[in-house]
Write a structure and sequence with these properties.
Length: 127
């Protein structure tokens, strides 16, 4: 089993590269795929706010471009807050690529917290 502390550290590293000059709310994410590979992402904003991309969707996109579509876990970190959970849009995107039920890893007071995606997004939309 992959060490979730290592996954969280990769999310922390990714958050350092966030481009968030409008909100100053840095977020980093790292997904773990079924093959054991990891892919990082950070949020990046735009002066046209609707064009901002969340760290979670950035990490999922990195996995997809590398041929990975089965996600087992995602670590999400922000130096701005504890328990940085994915927004609704990111929850729906993650549900598209779930391999069973994704572990969503956050950090609270320096300790990892693992929540199932199905808890965060019950009755998710799918075809």
């Amino acid at each position: 089993m992959f060490d979730y502390n290592e996954l969280m550290q990769m999310a922390k590293d990714a958050s350092k590269n966030a481009y968030c000059k409008y909100s100053n709310f840095k977020v980093g994410a790292c997904v773990l795929t079924d093959s054991g590979k990891t892919f990082k992402g950070c949020n990046f904003e735009n002066s046209s706010y609707g064009l901002a991309i969340c760290a979670e969707r950035c990490a999922v996109g990195a996995a997809i471009v590398n041929g990975e579509t089965k996600i087992n876990a995602i670590a999400i970190y922000s130096p701005n807050t504890d328990n940085c959970y994915p927004c609704g849009a990111c929850r729906q995107v993650l549900s598209e690529f779930k391999n069973g039920d994704i572990d969503v890893i956050t950090e609270e007071n320096g300790k990892l917290k693992i929540t199932k995606l199905s808890y965060l997004l019950p009755e998710s939309f799918s075809l």
